[in-house]
Amino acid sequence: MILELADIRIHPGQNAAFEEAIQRGLKSVIHEAKGFQGYKVNRGIESSERYILQIFWDTLEDHTVGFRQSEAFTKWRAIVGPFFASAPVVEHFELVSKSA
Question: What is the pTM of this model?
Answer without folding.
Answer: 0.93
